[in-house]
Design goal:
With about 150 residues, the protein is mostly helical. It has six helices and no strands. The chain has one domain. About 85% of the residues lie in helices and about 0% in strands. Helix 1 packs antiparallel against helix 6 and helix 2 runs antiparallel to helix 5. The radius of gyration is 25 Å and the shape is rod-shaped.
Length: about 150
């Protein structure tokens, strides 16, 4: 499936042997690209789902969020705070940051799902065009590559 190996090259050659016109070539390329985009986004979605399950953000996000603690730590180490109050504040910061990380991953997941739906709608539209402009053998040749 869209792997650019020898089998994929063979399927592309079979498509071109049917002598498609420019519009048919354009539709085929768009279908192949959109299908690739869907698969790539689904892969990103699955990775993010695993990260949510494991409660692990990508390191770039983690570093950015943890950097905000650089400002907070000096305040929490102030001598005027007694141990109990300091512990309570540290706990509150920790809970808030953990929830923010989870919310950020959930928002990213929602965005990826919307991107997948957008790609799927484009693919549906292209498949309608495919039915209008291509004969059955050409449709089969295009779909064989998927």
């Amino acid at each position: 499936m869209l792997t650019l190996n020898s089998n994929d090259r063979h399927l592309i050659t079979k498509f071109y042997e049917l002598q498609p016109n420019e519009e048919q070539i354009d539709i085929a390329k768009q279908i192949w690209q959109t299908t690739f985009d869907i698969l790539k986004t689904k892969e990103q979605e699955e990775i993010l789902r695993k990260r949510i399950f494991l409660r692990r953000l990508p390191t770039t996000y983690d570093k950015m969020i943890d950097k905000s603690l650089d400002y907070i730590e000096p305040m929490l180490s102030n001598q005027v705070l007694d141990k109990d109050r300091r512990a309570c504040l540290v706990s509150n910061y920790s809970k808030t940051i953990t929830q923010y990380k989870f919310d950020l991953m959930t928002l990213n997941l929602d965005t990826l799902q919307n991107v997948i739906r957008g790609h799927q709608q484009i693919l549906n539209d292209l498949q309608q065009k495919l039915l209008q402009y291509c004969h059955e053998l050409m449709i089969q040749a295009i779909e064989n590559r998927l």
